[in-house]
């Protein structure tokens, strides 16, 4: 039986593996150091598998007019599940994706390539540092910011601060939405602190949309 495509990430030392979904033909899972990170249906990128990603998808569906292109900024790439979803449901969207581990993107690009028609720009480096180098014209013009940054199963501490959310919120257009993936334990103490950080980071933080989850 052939070995699954894999690589050892040069910066973190984590091992990334692409595994086929045994139950969904044409679908694959990205696993990093034993932790499932992303699920992609190559035959239908508009289908979301993990529950938290489905919830993000519900919120993204409420951005602007249904089916119309948007401008999106993704902090963390994984297997580009959400950028693929945005392109599938809102063709022509302009998307920027920031990822620390270029080795990870190279693995995904080779074995789970996304549509060449998609306007997806990859940038490499620490999410917070790269945000500071993004084109000035993006500030105040982004419809969707997705924060989904992990190192293995953990969220790096320096991207959980109030200042980090202030910097990310500065890219949002009026009415724009930020979605955040949070890994937490019993009681959700860490997650409950995130909304407080984000609300205090920007006096113009938009109201949360009605949830359809």
Automatic annotation (TrEMBL):
<keyword id="KW-0620">Polyamine biosynthesis</keyword>
<feature type="region of interest" description="Disordered">
    <location>
        <begin position="191"/>
        <end position="213"/>
    </location>
</feature>
<dbReference type="GO" id="GO:0006596">
    <property type="term" value="P:polyamine biosynthetic process"/>
</dbReference>
<dbReference type="InterPro" id="IPR029063">
    <property type="entry name" value="SAM-dependent_MTases_sf"/>
</dbReference>
<protein>
    <submittedName>
        <fullName>Spermidine synthase</fullName>
    </submittedName>
</protein>
């Amino acid at each position: 039986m052939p070995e699954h495509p894999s690589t050892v990430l040069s910066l973190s030392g984590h091992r990334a593996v692409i595994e086929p979904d045994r139950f969904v033909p044409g679908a694959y899972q990205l696993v990093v150091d034993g932790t499932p990170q992303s699920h992609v249906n190559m035959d239908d990128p508009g289908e979301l598998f993990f529950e938290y990603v489905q919830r993000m998808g519900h919120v993204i569906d409420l951005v602007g007019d249904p089916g119309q292109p948007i401008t999106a900024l993704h902090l963390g790439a994984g297997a580009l599940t959400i950028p693929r979803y945005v392109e599938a449901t809102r063709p022509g969207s302009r998307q920027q994706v920031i990822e620390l581990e270029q080795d990870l993107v190279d693995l995904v690009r080779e074995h789970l390539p996304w549509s060449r028609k998609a306007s997806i720009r990859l940038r490499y480096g620490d999410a917070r540092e790269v945000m500071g180098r993004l084109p000035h014209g993006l500030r105040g013009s982004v419809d969707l910011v997705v924060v989904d940054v992990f190192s293995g199963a953990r969220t790096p501490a320096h991207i959980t601060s109030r200042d980090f959310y202030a910097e990310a919120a500065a890219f949002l257009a009026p009415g724009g939405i930020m979605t955040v993936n949070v890994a937490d334990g019993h009681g959700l103490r860490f997650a409950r602190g995130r909304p407080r950080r984000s609300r205090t980071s920007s006096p113009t933080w938009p109201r949360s949309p009605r949830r359809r989850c």
